[in-house]
Amino acid sequence: MELELKKDLASNWFKLLQNSFCNDIEKFEKNKLKFKSTSWKRSQKLDEGGGEFRILKGGKVFEKVGVNFSKVYGKFPKKFQKNIPGASKDPRFWASGISVVMHMNNPHIPAMHFNTRFISTTFEWFGGGMDVTPAINDLNEKKNFHNNLKKMCDRHNKSYYKEYKKWCDEYFFLPHRKEPRGIGGIFFDYKKENFHNDFKFVRDVGVTFQSIFNSIINKKINKKWSSKEKEAQYIKRGRYAEFNLLYDRGTKFGLQTGGNVEGILMSLPPLAKWK
Q1: Does residue 111 fall inside a structural domain?
Q2: Residues with catalytic function
Q3: CA-CA distance, 230 to 247, in Å (whole number)?
Q4: Cα dihedral 142→147→153→155 (10° resolution)
Q5: Is 274 domain-assigned?
Q6: Domains identified in the chain, total number
Q7: Is the residue at 248 inside a domain?
Q8: C-beta neighbour count of 162 within 10 angstroms
Q9: Could you tell me the CATH number of the domain that includes residue 191?
Q10: Among residues 10, 187, 18, 17, which one has the least CA distance to residue 96?
Q11: Tens of pLDDT along 161-204?
């Protein structure tokens, strides 16, 4: 399959997913609150692509949710080339992806994160994953979440769940706190065995995340909470902010490749606290 066709298939899917996620989110807000959309360009002088980030704030269900689509290309800066597969041979790259971060009003509903991407240098690969960060422990929710992920992974390869869960547990960990960010999920990168199979898996990851966030929210949307539970959520959000600013690969990649700063930092919660 030609590389240009692969790029079109991947970026069109990510854009379609952005629209579909946003439609579901607005339905939870009974369509009374709409996303604010901002389009951006990587360069004002050159054609190096760009993207669109959408943010919805102050909803009854969603305190803040961002859904970001990007399609960018150009050359990696010299200091960045050695860290990217294939970029030391040729610094040119093409990358497209979607990222989602949900911060909820109700502290019983966990913060949720998802992203998938396709990157092309002299190599080409998929990456992404999803994870859930509750402020209040719910063992049934954790069990159901991981069962759904295992079923999804098993449809493609019986070894994926164990491998990608371990990767997620190791990645979403705060070394300075010596604690995990949340209850884990799956994380994968440099996935380039076979484009057809890999793309099929990446599409399933997106559809599964949509099913999971709808299910989790619907179960808890009317659950009452206390001010003490809200305070616990603010503290947990502090941990979330620490991870995204100190360790998150996507944050570093976006900032170092000329991405839109507001779009990159949309993952930060609207309100957070530290003890």
Answers
A1: yes
A2: 113
A3: 26
A4: -160
A5: no
A6: 1
A7: yes
A8: 11
A9: 3.40.1500.10
A10: 10
A11: 999 999 999 999 999 999 999 999 999 999 998 999 999 999 99
The Cα–Cα gap between 187 and 57 comes to 27
235, 181 Cβ separation under 8 angstroms = no
**Phi, psi of 100, rounded to the nearest 5 degrees:** -135, 135
Provide the domain limits for residue 38. Answer: 3-267
- Residues of the chain with pLDDT > 90: what percent? 83
Number of helical (H) and strand (E) elements in the chain, helices listed first = 8, 9
pLDDT band for position 223 (50/70/90)? very high
d(CA 74, CA 77): 10
**The pLDDT value given to residue 156:** 98
Using CA atoms, how far apart are residues 159 and 150, in angstroms rounded to an integer?
A: 10
Quick check: is 275 in a domain? Answer: no
Is the pTM above the cut of 0.85? yes
Put residue 84 in one of left, alpha, beta given phi > 0 → left and psi -120 to 50 → alpha: beta
